[in-house]
């Protein structure tokens, strides 16, 4: 179970389903709506993208911007949740741990009135929007507001949609879930409109138009994290979730304990015993994790910063001869919604994506 958090995106004030029978029943219904009855009952079944690489612009590749049709939308900088709507039984946000968070009483009107929306399963992202409003004093104030952006539909009103192409899934989302509204996250052409969103974004998602919704890793769902600036390449937006590792040394003369931090990835569903790289934290972050008794169990999101100074050590367990290196992984935030870090395959793919360094002009040419 995730530790308590002050981050509003983790919905810390809402109750999680803890009773095992109730949790099992909700998971079974969730998988039934996805027609995934044979899936692992405690594993998150949502679709997962792969990192965009230069090869995805080549026409001779099976997955290529030149061979397939894609919708381009923002890669929202929020928290991934699937939304389960069960009519009078309520609604639940479902996180990457496949845990269910009971949402406050909400009204999801069904199309045409009558009973509320039931047996509906959406995929999307919870964001913290910065909303600017005028006040009675004639000034402008900015407030933070939680908003769920639905960008796909697995089932609506009990109708299975995963085998349908993306436009039909989005059409059902628009017509049935939010009558008269936009029905989901706005799908952008790859241009400046992306700058106008009221929340952060850290890349672009290319979703294949004609393919069905696929559970698990999806080779044709492309995540490009390198073009959020739109004018300049920002390869450091390629983020990876690592497991933090803390090592301690007791100085013989003073008895003082000194920590150092490293990061690890997952391999074949388990935490790797191998150190991937060293991690250098700033003052406040350093103090925070030194005082954290569960630091070794934390999954943290990091981004590569070519200017970040990283303290490294020679191979092995020696603490001697530390050296400063320009460039390294920089801590961004805790990932309390995850129990395992990214797999080594994801790490290598993100490395390749960053090394490819695809420029904006190249990407636009590939998109025609």
From TrEMBL:
Gene3D superfamilies annotated for this entry? DNA ligase/mRNA capping enzyme, Nucleic acid-binding proteins
What superkingdom does the record give?
Eukaryota
Which stretches make up the mRNA capping enzyme adenylation domain? 48-178
InterPro entries xref list: mRNA_cap_enzyme_adenylation, mRNA_cap_enzyme_C, mRNA_Capping_Enz/RNA_Phosphat, NA-bd_OB-fold
The mRNA capping enzyme C-terminal domain, residue ranges? 237-364
- Please give the Gene Ontology molecular function terms for this protein: ATP binding; GTP binding; mRNA guanylyltransferase activity
Where is the secretion signal located? none
Q: Where in the cell is it found?
A: Nucleus
Its EC number(s)? 2.7.7.50
Report the main location listed first in the record: nucleus
The protein's matches in Pfam families, at most eight in alphabetical order, are given as:
mRNA_cap_C, mRNA_cap_enzyme
GO BP term (any one): 7-methylguanosine mRNA capping
Instruction: Kindly state which keywords UniProt assigns to this record, in alphabetical order.
Output: GTP-binding, mRNA capping, mRNA processing, Nucleotide-binding, Nucleotidyltransferase, Nucleus, Transferase
Give the reaction(s) catalysed: a 5'-end diphospho-ribonucleoside in mRNA + GTP + H(+) = a 5'-end (5'-triphosphoguanosine)-ribonucleoside in mRNA + diphosphate
- One GO CC term of this entry? nucleus
Which CDD domains would you find in this protein's record?
Adenylation_mRNA_capping (cd07895)
The record's listing under PANTHER family reads: MRNA-CAPPING ENZYME
Q: What is this protein called?
A: mRNA guanylyltransferase
């Amino acid at each position: 179970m995730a530790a308590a958090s002050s981050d509003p995106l983790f919905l810390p004030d809402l109750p999680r389903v803890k009773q095992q029978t109730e949790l099992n029943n909700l998971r079974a219904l969730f998988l039934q709506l996805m027609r995934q009855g044979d899936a692992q009952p405690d594993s998150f079944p949502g679709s997962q993208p792969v990192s965009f690489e230069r090869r995805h612009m080549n026409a001779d590749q099976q997955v290529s911007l030149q061979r397939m049709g894609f919708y381009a939308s923002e890669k929202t900088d929020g928290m991934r949740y699937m939304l389960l709507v069960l009519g009078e039984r309520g609604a639940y946000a479902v996180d990457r741990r496949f845990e269910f968070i009971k949402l406050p009483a909400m009204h999801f009107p069904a199309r045409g009135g009558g009973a509320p929306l039931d047996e509906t399963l959406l995929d999307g992202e919870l964001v913290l929007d910065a909303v600017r409003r005028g006040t009675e004093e004639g000034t402008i104030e900015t407030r933070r507001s939680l908003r769920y952006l639905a960008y796909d539909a697995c089932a609506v009103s009990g109708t299975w949609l995963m085998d349908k192409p993306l436009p039909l899934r989005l059409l059902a989302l628009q017509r049935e879930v939010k009558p008269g509204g936009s029905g989901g996250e706005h799908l952008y052409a790859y241009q400046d409109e992306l700058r106008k969103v009221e929340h952060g974004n850290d890349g672009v998602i290319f979703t294949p138009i004609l393919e069905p919704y696929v559970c698990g890793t999806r080779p044709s769902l492309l995540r490009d994290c390198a073009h959020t600036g739109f004018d300049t390449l920002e390869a450091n937006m390629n983020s990876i979730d690592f497991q933090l590792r803390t090592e301690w040394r007791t100085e013989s003369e003073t008895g003082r304990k000194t920590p150092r931090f490293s990061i690890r990835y997952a391999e074949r569903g388990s935490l790797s015993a191998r150190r991937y790289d060293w991690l250098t934290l700033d003052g406040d972050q350093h103090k925070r994790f030194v005082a954290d008794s569960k630091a070794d169990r934390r999954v943290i999101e990091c981004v590569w910063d070519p200017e970040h100074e990283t303290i490294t050590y020679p191979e092995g367990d020696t603490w001697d001869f530390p050296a400063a290196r320009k460039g390294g992984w920089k801590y961004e935030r805790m990932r309390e919604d995850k129990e395992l870090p990214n797999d080594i395959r994801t790490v290598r793919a993100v490395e390749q994506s960053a090394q490819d360094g695809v420029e904006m002009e190249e990407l636009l040419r590939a998109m025609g």
